[in-house]
Amino acid sequence: MQIGKLAAAFSSRTLGCTGFGVALLGLSGCMHAVIEQTRELPTAISSTEAVVILAKPNVEGSGTEDKFMDCVGDDLAGGAHPMHIAANNAFVDDLFPWFEPSTAPTRPEAITELLNRPGVSEKIAAKGVRYVVWVDGVTKKTDGGGSIACGAAPGAAGCLGFGWWEKQSDYLATVWDLKQARSAGSVTTNVTGTSALVGVIVPLPFIARVQGTACNRMAGQLRTFLQGDAATATK
C-alpha cells in the first residue's frame, strides 16, 4: 500500500523513534537530544540575586534568536522554584554601551575592569544581577527531501506524496559569576529532529519541535546548574 511505503520512508529517517505508528498517533516528529554540563565554580543563587540572559555577540552570521532567549528566560522565571530573570533589553540599555556587541566583555576577567567604571557597579547592583548567561547558537535546517502535491477537481480534492526535513538546535550557554569575575561553567544542548508531511488525501504533518525542546532542556539544566548542590535556592 502507498501509505505503508510512506511510513517506511519516514521511519528510516527517524532518530531514536520506536516507529511510524507512534509518530502517527502523536502527530509529532522524532527527536534526539544531547545535554552536557561543565562546572568550573560552585553556584548557589539566592532569592535576592538575578540572572540576565544575553545573546553572545556574534560578528559573523546571525545571532541567537530572540524567541529562544525569551523561551529560556520564561522557563527559568516559572516552575516550582522561579528565578528572578532580569529583562535583557533593559539591562543592555541601562548599561549602555558596555554590553553592546562591539564593546561587550569577551572574557569574565574583564568584568573587574568594567565594574570599576563610573556608575556600572551601581547599576548592576540595583538590578540584583549576579550571573550573566551568554547564549550562542541557532536552529537551522540540515537536510530534507521528497515532495507532496495537492490538487482539486469538481467534487474531489486531496494531496499525495511525502516530504521530510531535518532541523538541528545547537546552543551553548556560558555562565559568568559577576561577583567573582569568573566563568562558573557552561551548559550545551543539541537537539536534532525529523519532521514529515504525508499526503494521503488530507495532508498529515508530523512536526519535531526541536527549538522548543532545546529551550526546555537548556532551561532545566541551567536551573540545576545555578542552584548548585542545594535542592532549592539559598535563602
Give me the secondary-structure category.
alpha/beta
Rounded to the nearest angstrom, the radius of gyration is 22 Å
Q: Hey, roughly how much beta strand do the residues contain?
A: 35-45%
Question: How many structural domains?
Answer: 1
Spatial order of the strands forming the largest sheet: 1-6-5-4-2-3
Shape type: elongated
Q: Give me the strand/helix succession.
A: HHEEHEHHHEEEH
The main β sheet shows up as: 6 strands, mixed
Kindly state the mean pLDDT as a whole number?
A: 84
Total beta strand runs: 6
Helix content: 25-40%
How many helices? The count is 7
**Low-pLDDT residue intervals, each spanning 5 or more residues:** 1-16, 18-27, 230-235
Question: What is the rounded distance between the termini?
Answer: 63 Å
In terms of topology, how is this protein built?
Elements: H1 2-13, H2 20-26, E1 30-39, E2 50-55, H3 66-77, E3 84-86, H4 88-94, H5 110-115, H6 120-127, E4 129-153, E5 156-177, E6 182-206, H7 210-227
Helix pairs in contact: 3-7
3D architecture notes:
There is one protein chain. The chain is α/β, with parallel strands linked by helices. The protein has one domain (2-227). 30% of the residues lie in helices and 39% in strands. Strands 1-6-5-4-2-3 form a six-stranded mixed β-sheet. A hairpin with a 4-residue loop joins strand 5 (156-177) and strand 6. Helix 3 crosses helix 7. The longest helix is centred in the last third of the chain and has 18 residues, at 210-227. Mean pLDDT is 84; it is low at 1-16, 18-27 and 230-235.
